[in-house]
# Entry
Amino acid sequence: MKNYRKSDYALNKFSEGIVYQFANGIQVITMEDYLRDNPEKTEADFLALKAISDEIYLEQVRLETAQGNKTVSLTELEDIIACTGPSLDESYILADDHRRIHLAVDKLFVCGKLTPKQKERFIKHFFKGMSLRQIAEDEGVHFTSVDECIRRVVDKLRAYFDEIK
# Structure
């Protein structure tokens, strides 16, 4: 089987079997495996299941692409805090909006409103410039889990900056 790392859909489509991709490896269910484990089923049943799995993977790619296009940018975060001035005790520390965002993330983490994973992923994405897919690949998780995690951080940052207005 060829190595189609960039697309679960391509990996499944170009395989003769049904592909399950996990963080720690790939498992392929061949027609022989399926028929052996399900003696009451036919080749047509397997092919129908294979077609369904192709459709599911294709829909997943479409959703990931749509979500990737909706990723919140640092500019949007800067817009969130644009209406708020620094509090008096922080004004000497805060040189720019990036620093304010970083400080807010640290505060939310210390208060227990962000998990270590949320803080780490947010910093990797917004301050180190890693894409959501790069973070997911490094951690061996699915793209959508990273996307959802970062979106939760952004929501918490919005609430934080709304509070200090």
Remarks:
- The chain has eight helices and two strands.
- Residues 118 and 149 are 6 Å apart (CA to CA).
